[in-house]
Amino acid sequence: MTGAEEKFFEARKKVFPRKVDGTFRRLKWVIMAVTLTIYYVTPWLRWDRGPYAPDQAVLIDLANRRFYMFSIEIWPNEFYYVVGLLVMAAIGLFLVTSAVGRAWCGYACPQTVWTDLFVHVERLVEGDRNAQIRLDKAPWTAKKIGKRALKYAIWLYIAAATGGAWIWYFADAPTLFMDFIHGSAPFAAYAAVGILTFTTFTLGGFMREQVCIYMCPWPRIQGAMMDEKSLGVTYKYWRGEPRTHGLKRSHAQPLTDLANGEKVGDCIDCNACVAVCPTGIDIREGPQIGCITCGLCIDACDEIMEKVGREPKLIGYATAADEALIREGKPTVSAKKRLLRPRTLIYFLLWAGVGLGMLFVLGNRDRIGIDVLQTRNPIWVRLADGSIRNTYTVKIRNMEARPRTVEIRVDGIDGVLWNEAGSREQATRSVRLKVPADKVAKTQIFVAAPGNGPKRTDVTFTVRALDQDMASATDQSFFERPEANR
Amino acid sequence: MADNKRIDEPTGTQTVGHEWDGIEELDTPMPRWWLIIFYATVVFAIVYTILYPAWPMIDRATAGVLGWSSHGELEKKLAEQEAQRAPIMSALSTTPVEKLVASPQLMDTAVEGGRSAFKVYCVQCHGSGAAGSKGYPNLNDDDWLWGGDITAIQQTLMHGIRQPGDDQTRMSQMPAFGRDGLLSSSEIQDVVSYVRFASKQEPASESAQRGRAIFANNCAVCHGADAKGDRQFGAPNLTDAIWLYGGDRNTITDTVTNSRYGIMPAWGGRLDPVTIKMLAAYVHSLGGGEGLPTSDVGAEPEAAPAPDESAGNVIAE
After folding, report:
1. Which of A116, A210, A336, B210 qualifies as a cystine partner to B190, CB 3.0-4.6 A?
2. What is d(CA A396, CA A440) in angstroms, rounded to the nearest whole number?
3. Closest-CA residue of chain A to B307
4. What pTM, to 2 d.p., does this model score?
């Protein structure tokens, strides 16, 4: 045993990111504004679908099992569109990761966006990095309690608004809003808001980088997705090392010998990159799981490099392949050439292929459907006149937002059909049925045919809408007779 | 081995003290929040085992201070279901069976309720698909001994067939022509020939010709002069393709010689009227159900929708 104290747990190292301005900070502001606007505004957009369907542009109607997105309506049996979207999301992430590394983590991930928002609130209330550190160490005076209470109150407000906005996607937003404030919304709505408020408050306010480092599987998968040609936020140690300490010595010519024969790099070891890092890492230690590639250290370092009169981008986006080229003294490859390589092109083609395929299917899909299930008990029924009757449970999907009268026909057998509302005496070659808007109608179809014939006959059921578009759909089934007649 | 714990220089983390071919494992401490959650789950488990049934004892588990049980939960759910169904069940009990068809919602409920009741009380004889077997009629077809409209079916269900002690039961008795010596065996063969001719199973023959006269004297009183049966006596139509016991020569001979005496329980005394109504609706829905007789037209108003414009049963999907 050594003298080291045994640590049973690791306390979170508090991170107090310093404020910074620059290209990437501004880019993050824009992305935050866009993503938050999309999140908060989308459920309030209206979209006219006529009297039989909701007029909310984006609506996940779990109770009625419908998903509306502008002019597209998805039924549960069309769930493969959702699968397609997920496949696109996955390939899209592969594409982005192989090209520009962990851009998702750094800019667009909700955890990043909300944490960023919470950090800014914190800065607004408690001041910048140094003030925050002081306040954290300060005893619990009234001033500290007041500041903390204000900060938590604003966080809680943002968290509740986040959780609140989530539920608007699942019901008519204006109606639910009124119900919600009157206390008459379903329990699930309050529970959802409560849970999401809690998670947003905790994950954005306290867990922050711990989510990325310990909880999220994506950083680890991305590590495997990246190769030597993927862009990553890189400290160019070949430029920066050896570091100097303090501005004075750094005024010497970079990378030249000092009087004592020591080489000097561009890095002045000012720790600006560490101070601004939202995950509290030192980028100069090289690529690491904690780096979400938000680019804030690039902004911080550029600011310093400008002040000391050095070339910017001591920390910048670079690839491992570039690094190797520079060390060999060769020119680096252009960013365009890095992006357009077989791997990214294949990802892009796959991504676009899935997307175009879905669009094509979406544009050509039928909004009517038929499912025929032959009754197997009994398979056939002999009727008094010696003919044979088969029974089928038929479901008609009317996926249009208008009621439709449809005609059901059976081909492949010389028989008549009727349903529970008709009778054999009035039976003809087809049955008509009214199907309400955007609903499935179920009916029993009886088919009677002469008793003499093959044991099994293939039949085709066709449903045709008797309205302007005359859409139709078919399903296959069998007509069965007893083995030996009589 | 465990004494070889040391601080790993590059990471500053203690090792677990094991070493395999020079490979050591770091004892990396867990994040504090992780431990807090772990302890919280332990506390949750302790609280849970106090509140709910948990610890196995000799013949049962500890009951838990909340008194919760899955049986109690089930009873609560059943009571909820019962309460939820109460309005439609009371509507079913007040609506006469012949009016059910006017309300698609009541009819659907009745058919579904009948479907499950059928599985309990009727399948033993009529089969799970109501297709029957020898001596037990197929309820899917369009041939009915005692009537196939929904009120006739309900009547049969209520009072049964040939049930002693029920004065409204379906009652009739076919003579055992051979066993009781009413007809000689050659006469019986002639009648059988005629019946098989009438049902187009055999060509005309001299035997059938003789049988026609015997039939007119002995059988037509119940089965009708044209052998098409009479529902008043539950006398089957002998000219159609459906045979309850069999239409081959041997079976018909046996039927004429020894008679048949099919029975069915009177369910009126065993099941509540709503269940019987539901069973009638279900049997009627199997495809062979008949419309109400014309004399009852007054009781069947706008009920029947135009056959070509009927709305299907809408299911939320």
Report:
1. B210
2. 5
3. A422
4. 0.73
